Amino acid sequence: MTLETTRRLKHDTPDTDRRLDGMAQGVLGTGMDRPEGPLKVAGRATYAAEAHPEAMAEGYLVRAATIGRITGSNGDAIRAMPGVIEVIEDERMIRNAAQGMAGESPVQKQGQVWYVGQPVACVVAESFEQARHAAQAMLVTIEPDGTHVFDAEDPAAEVEKPKQKQLDQGDLEGAMSAAAFSLDATYHTPSMSSAAMEPHASVAQWDEDGALTLRGSYQLLKFNKAELADVLGVAPEKVRILSPYVGGGFGSKLGLAPEAVAAALAAQALGRPVRVVLHRRQVFETVTRRSETRQRIRLACDAEGKLSAIGHENLVSQLPGEVFSEPVAQGTHFQYAAPNRVIGHEIARIRRPAAGSVRAPGEAVGVTAFEIAIDELAKKAGIDPLEFRLRNVPDKHPENGKPFSSSTMEATLREGAKRFGWTHTPPRQRRDGEWWIGTGMAGAVRVNMMIEAMARVVLTGQGARVECDMTDIGTGSYAILTQVAAEMLGFAPDRVETVLGDTDLPPASGSGGSFGAASTSTAVYLACMELRERLAAKLGVKETELTLKDGLAIHENRKTPLAELLGEEEWRALGHLQPGKAGQEVRQATWGAIFAEVAVSDVTGETRVRRMDGTFAAGRILNLKTARSQCHGGMIWGIGLALTEAMEHDPRDGHMVNRDLAEYHLPVNLDVPQLGVHFLEERDDWANPLQAKGIGELAICGSGAAVINAIENACGVRVRRLPATLDQVMDGLIAQG
Amino acid sequence: MQFQLDVNGERHALDLDTRTSLLDALRDHLGLTGSKKGCDHGQCGACTVMVNGRRINSCLTLACMHEGDEITTIEGLGRPDDLSPLQRAFVEHDGYQCGYCTPGQICSATAMLDEIKAGWPSNVTGDLEAQVEASIEEVSERMSGNLCRCSCYPGIVDAIRQVAKEEARA
């Protein structure tokens, strides 16, 4: 019997020990290659749909084409089609993916179609080709259940205005009328999709004891397990989810999705394994999208550009029955100082597919619009937009007076400007053939969060193994958890194995909200600290005087190999992080500054990004390479947000018109220049004992604004309805003459 | 329908529904799951394989049409313990994150470098007579059929150009 001891941390106070800075292995913070890299580049990493248990049947979802009550189907005729085994029309099917961290079933079908595209049945056949063909032949009859609204701005829309999401401090109207300069402008961002490259897929298999194993593609396994158990009406202990590799998430795999439920129900009904893979179009429709937003921004400042008022009133959309609503003003609450403040939040209940968290919910669209507005006001005041921002850096939370855990807004702005070579010029000054050339900048900000997390570390004389249900959705979990353990226990990284993506392992944070790396790394850190204490005790020394490096325990010039200390033993420790007051007593956030140079065609209105640089501060950087890639991703999402991405909904029934990768325009390789990314060295003691904060979403929270602001600087056209499509820019160019 | 496929130098006898795409034949019937299905509509490039040395979207062609063709998938380019130069460069430059589009990117890049060597021009080639260089712009343009939502394009371009330079020196 191996002894497993636990080290808990209720995170209430800052950690000023900074123990990682005293470690000797020198692995953490380097740009170490991902340990799973060779598997991925050789095509040997296995994703959800690639499990192939014996006798597996294939399921294909059937989509509702109208809204209303389900009154029947041609299911019997479908059952008679070649290869068809069964048609699943179970009322427990879910209408859309669960919201992130729901831990319970989303709205279930129960005879009702809420939006066009909702899955209403699953055809199961011997082969994929047979299942697909039969599913396309299936007809579900739906009786209309009244008239519905499909646009949040339709006056007929039912709009909620939750009290706790409104803020009114000081006198905004008064400040506006007394101001030297003011702005009252409305911005729109479109409905958007996360569009992860791997479509959702589940392979479900029940054993004789009524236990379910589901190979799926999910971000938050401990919550997904609870959601699936709740949907099926079984005990959570009867559900195991495996997601060792996840082909991108960006929020789309936070919550249990319809394919998992269909696969589980079908496998139970048939008594054999069933695979259900969402078609790309089904991914768009049934997995939560980012809500479109309408943002009214009011700003006022004095002659020197000091802000006196900030107003940010937003309208988002959501299906009835969903709790989440896009928290547009999340960053506005604290990004800039100003005594008079109004925040408004309204939710229109309409019949577009459900909205949910997509990479950086809130700031991705909120900071983007706000940073465009700041640019507009700076221009009105005749002040360099960089200088304007520097004059409005808050020294504490502007609404509640709480301190910042660390404030790097000014430092990132100054460093970013230096690296880019920022100079401010009036619009329409630079020309290259048919192209207007311009530069723009924006600040970036994102809240920092920690989530409860557990992880086990197993130590032997030869190395260590990290085990938890954490996921790696491309973010680098395999790399950084390996690095944390290697650093703390003094092993070369190839002596550390990290095993993830299995709910039979200790429940970690999962991946989402940029909380994964810091939360789960802290759990690994705690487990390692426990093992260090046990090693120190065995050597009869203080843990703080123990150096671990290259498999050796070093103390006062004595070197003892761990292989000698442990022999054949296996030591186990569990780390358990519980978020505490440290998350409430201060405002924790990450900051950045983004600078862009664009070219705008005077002939077509097309915008090309020529140069883009981001400078970011997010506490300790755990892996330089994966952190940089995350920032590349965020900046490129910013390019998409600014220039190409928009989900179009049919005004007659709300359905997604461009629900595929040909018509929903992600940035492609040629849309992106070689980006510059720079990190400011930082330790945020309030964040966690690693002094590390989230980096996965920060770069998208402002990058789009840098592009939009650069368009204005290039050609004089101000775009307030994103994305800046050619027709909009062309209209602006024509208006300028 | 019975037919044979030659994949990565091995011949396989298959008996499949004629509707089976080359991609599904590889993934579901030959166990070669390195080729990925991202859209099943030729829009994302994750399923890119080489047929007779040319890159194609394997989701857009039926398996039974390829008897006698020489098919190369990501598994045929290298193994985790014996990676091809491009596979190694993708790891080094972090030209991937989630890894799902990666096999398609690498198959595409492998064939694309041969296209450059053969002097094929692209939409961004200025001088149609001169030898094409693996410039940032040329590589970006030629790789724009392979989507990456993690958005690793800068790393992908660096990885490919490093290999192009190494090959030019060799």
TrEMBL record, chain A:
Residues 1-36 are annotated as: Disordered. Keywords: Oxidoreductase. It is an enzyme of class 1 (oxidoreductase). Pfam families: Ald_Xan_dh_C, MoCoBD_1, MoCoBD_2. The keyword 4Fe-4S does not apply. It comes from the Bacteria. Residues 42-146 form the Aldehyde oxidase/xanthine dehydrogenase a/b hammerhead domain. SMART domains: Ald_Xan_dh_C. Residues 1-21 have a biased composition (Basic and acidic residues). The keyword Metal-binding does not apply. One of its GO terms (molecular function) is xanthine dehydrogenase activity. Its EC number is 1.17.1.4. This is Xanthine dehydrogenase molybdenum binding subunit apoprotein.
Automatic annotation (TrEMBL), chain B:
Its EC number is 1.17.5.2. Keywords: 2Fe-2S, Iron, Iron-sulfur, Metal-binding, Oxidoreductase. InterPro entries: 2Fe-2S-bd, 2Fe-2S-bd_dom_sf, 2Fe-2S_ferredoxin-like_sf, 2Fe-2S_ferredoxin-type, 2Fe2S_fd_BS, Aldehyde_Oxdr_Iron-Sulfur, Beta-grasp_dom_sf. It comes from Limimaricola soesokkakensis. Residues 1-77 form the 2Fe-2S ferredoxin-type domain. It comes from the Bacteria. Pfam families: Fer2 (PF00111), Fer2_2 (PF01799). It is an enzyme of class 1 (oxidoreductase). The keyword Cytoplasm does not apply. The keyword Repeat does not apply. One of its GO terms (molecular function) is oxidoreductase activity, acting on the aldehyde or oxo group of donors. This is Caffeine dehydrogenase subunit gamma.
